[in-house]
């Protein structure tokens, strides 16, 4: 996915930018970058962070990146921020999102004779470069931002650093978050609301869908008002978000705790222990345990010093290896026990299958699994949640295809309905395929209830295919 951070101060913003960007490290493990504007110059550093944390790669750069305004990025796709020169002057751009119609946009740029692009090492175009070109194609930065937002099929939240300030723009329907912070000597903007609290900022407000503001050391000016329609990604609470983060006023940890409580209220098994697959599953397990009265325990521990979230690496075999390597069993809490495990989701099933296998090898008597979200039936079109090249990589869709072939949307939505016979059949087949003792998926209406905002404002496309 990725995260962005920007700071504008009356003094040097470098340390705020450094730590604020670092606080987004849970959102990506590919590239990190920072750009600062100082005395007419744009100073930039970009490093790969696949094998080292952001902080260790950039701590030497902070002394050189001095200036009153800057933007930073944690990316799971392309190097950024990018600095570009255009008829609007020089500016730097950092983005979070996904572009589904790149070829169409590139063709339009070529037809208008205003752009050329560089390929990355994988032969693909850096999406941030494309966004930067669209921004520079219009009469003003603000018009360019709105043009890019409306032209892009997918999702695009961005920061644009100029000599006049930082333009911050939330994507067209607010699928991702962008929050403003304020303190005595400046302002900041961040994907994650918790990222600036320890830097002395307090919450100012969250940007609305498609809203654009200009941030300077002296204040925040609204450039374009928000739109009415919102479709914020429900997976931000389910998986992506750090526990201390708030989206639309709803805390991630509280949402997961409530989700676990609701899961327990619908369950009828009686295990010896309840555990969460770390990190995202832990709060669900605590909510489940406190409601059910079944003890919470940690029968395996995540080795946090070196292993990041396992879906981040580019290659599937490496993701599988990390899924195995990062979890270390506590045999005394496993041997002879009936365990109930809660994970944030079941995507391909690889990780939960391996987790279940090593629990059995460690002596578990039963392994019951609860997914904190419904079956994932559609690959995300907006935030790169899954790297699957086909929906058939998803275990739920693979098993459906064995029965239905190329299933229609009507049939798929029947599988998504938790009260349908097809959903029950799918759940049983996933359970057998992954060798669980039992399996239950969280109901979509219960996920929506645990978030607690208007369901019409939530994007649930990956579960029900509704845009």
UniProtKB/TrEMBL annotation:
Catalysis: reaction(s): 5-phospho-beta-D-ribosylamine + L-glutamate + diphosphate = 5-phospho-alpha-D-ribose 1-diphosphate + L-glutamine + H2O
Superkingdom to which the source organism belongs: Bacteria
Binding of Mg(2+), residues: 280, 343-344
Record EC number: 2.4.2.14
Pathway in which the depicted protein is active: Purine metabolism; IMP biosynthesis via de novo pathway; N(1)-(5-phospho-D-ribosyl)glycinamide from 5-phospho-alpha-D-ribose 1-diphosphate: step 1/2
Cofactor(s) needed: [4Fe-4S] cluster; Mg(2+)
InterPro entries according to UniProt: GATase_2_dom (IPR017932), Ntn_hydrolases_N (IPR029055), PRTase-like (IPR029057), PRTase_dom (IPR000836), PurF (IPR005854)
Binding residue positions for [4Fe-4S] cluster: 233, 380, 459, 462
Cofactor note: Binds 1 [4Fe-4S] cluster per subunit. Binds 1 Mg(2+) ion per subunit.
GO molecular function: amidophosphoribosyltransferase activity; iron-sulfur cluster binding; metal ion binding
Keywords from the named record: Glutamine amidotransferase, Glycosyltransferase, Iron, Iron-sulfur, Magnesium, Metal-binding, Purine biosynthesis, Transferase
Domain Glutamine amidotransferase type-2: 1-218
CDD domains membership: PRTases_typeI
Enzyme class: transferase
Family the UniProt entry places it in: In the C-terminal section; belongs to the purine/pyrimidine phosphoribosyltransferase family.
Name of this chain's protein: Amidophosphoribosyltransferase
Organism: Christensenella hongkongensis
């Amino acid at each position: 996915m990725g995260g962005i951070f920007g700071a504008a101060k009356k003094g040097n913003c470098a340390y705020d930018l450094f730590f604020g960007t670092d606080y987004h490290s849970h959102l990506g493990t590919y590239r990190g970058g920072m750009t600062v504007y100082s005395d007419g110059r744009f100073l930039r550093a970009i490093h790969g962070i696949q094998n080292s944390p952001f902080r260790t790669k950039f701590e030497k750069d902070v002394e050189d990146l001095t200036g009153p305004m800057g933007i930073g990025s944690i990316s799971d796709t392309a190097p950024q921020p990018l600095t570009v020169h255009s008829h609007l002057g020089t500016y730097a751009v950092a983005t979070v999102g996904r572009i589904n119609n790149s070829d169409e946009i590139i063709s339009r740029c070529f037809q208008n004779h205003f752009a050329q692009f560089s390929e990355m090492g994988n032969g693909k175009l850096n999406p941030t470069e494309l966004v930067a070109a669209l921004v520079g194609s219009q009469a003003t930065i603000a018009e360019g931002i709105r043009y890019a937002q409306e032209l892009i099929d997918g999702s695009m939240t961005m920061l644009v650093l100029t000599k006049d300030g930082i333009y911050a723009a939330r994507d067209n329907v607010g699928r991702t978050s962008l929050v403003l912070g304020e303190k005595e000597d400046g302002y900041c903007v961040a994907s994650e609301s918790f990222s600036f609290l320890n830097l002395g900022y307090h919450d100012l407000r969250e940007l609305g869908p498609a809203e654009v503001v200009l941030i300077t050391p002296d204040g925040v000016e609204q450039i374009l008002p928000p739109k009415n329609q919102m479709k914020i990604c429900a997976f931000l609470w389910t998986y992506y978000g750090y526990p201390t983060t708030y989206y639309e006023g709803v805390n991630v940890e509280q949402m997961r705790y409530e989700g676990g409580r609701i899961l327990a209220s619908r369950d009828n098994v009686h295990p010896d222990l309840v555990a969460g697959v770390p990190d995202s599953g832990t709060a669900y397990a605590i909510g489940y345990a406190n409601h059910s009265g079944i003890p919470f325990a940690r029968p395996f521990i995540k080795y946090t010093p070196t292993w990041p979230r396992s879906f981040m690496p580019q290659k599937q075999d490496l993701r599988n290896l990390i899924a195995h390597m990062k979890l270390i069993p506590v045999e005394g809490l496993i041997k002879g026990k009936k365990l109930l495990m809660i994970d944030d989701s079941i995507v391909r099933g690889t990780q939960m299958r391996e987790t279940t296998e090593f629990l059995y090898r460690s002596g578990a008597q039963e392994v019951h699994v609860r997914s904190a979200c419904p079956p994932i039936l559609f690959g995300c079109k907006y935030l790169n949640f899954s790297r699957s090249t086909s929906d058939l990589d998803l275990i739920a869709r693979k098993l459906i295809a064995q029965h239905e072939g190329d299933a229609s949307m009507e049939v798929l939505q029947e599988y998504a309905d938790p009260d349908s016979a097809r959903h029950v059949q799918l759940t049983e087949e996933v359970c057998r395929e992954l060798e669980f003792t039992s399996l239950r998926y969280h109901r979509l209406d219960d996920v929506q209830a645990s978030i607690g905002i208007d369901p019409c404002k939530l994007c649930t496309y990956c579960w029900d295919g509704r845009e």
